[in-house]
Amino acid sequence: MVYTLFKFLHVAGAIVWVGGVITLTVLNARLAAGGDGAGQAAVARASGALGRIMVGPAALLTLVAGVTAAGIGGSMGALWTTYGFAGILVSMGLGSTVIRRTTTALQTALAEPAAAGANLAALRTRLTGLNLFNVFVLLSVVAAMVFKPTL
Question: Are the CB atoms for 80 and 148 separated by under 8 Å?
């Protein structure tokens, strides 16, 4: 029963986390492609808040519940759990550092579009690339959790 509870919390946290990251990635990419500076500035502002109140806590819940479930279930140290933990840490690291900094820089550039020039396009491209890489990492972790590869 305890294992099932932590497994549920792990999966629920992952749903919120991965869904939030994918949603923000799609929104940012569409607004960047359309050149909608006002819309992208609003999404950039909302991204920071969403990261702090939803995506970040969901990532932490996923990690804690996953470690607990793996410990209870006896799968700690299996290739798929090790890969999952590594992927979680990579994604959390990306989101809390380089993606956050790029989003903040983009927000600043969007506030002064005349001064930003080519930098604005580079920031949009960089943020889209970072977000897509993060989505790839997260989906590869989900695949590892489903297929449970071993050596």
Answer: yes
Residue that the structure tokens 């939030």 belong to: 20
Closest CA to 13 of 140, 138, 148: 138
Residue type, 71: G
**Model confidence at 150: pLDDT above 90:** no
Q: Is 150 left (phi over 0), alpha (psi -120 to 50) or beta?
A: beta
Amino acid identity of residue 30, one-letter, is R
- Helix (H) or strand (E) holding 130, with range, is helix 118-147
**Measured distance CA(106)–CA(125) in Å, rounded:** 10
State whether the Cα torsion 101-105-108-110 is positive or negative.
negative
Tell me the C-alpha distance between 36 and 102, whole Å: 17
Residue-wise pLDDT tens digits, 8-37? 999 999 999 999 999 999 988 888 888 778
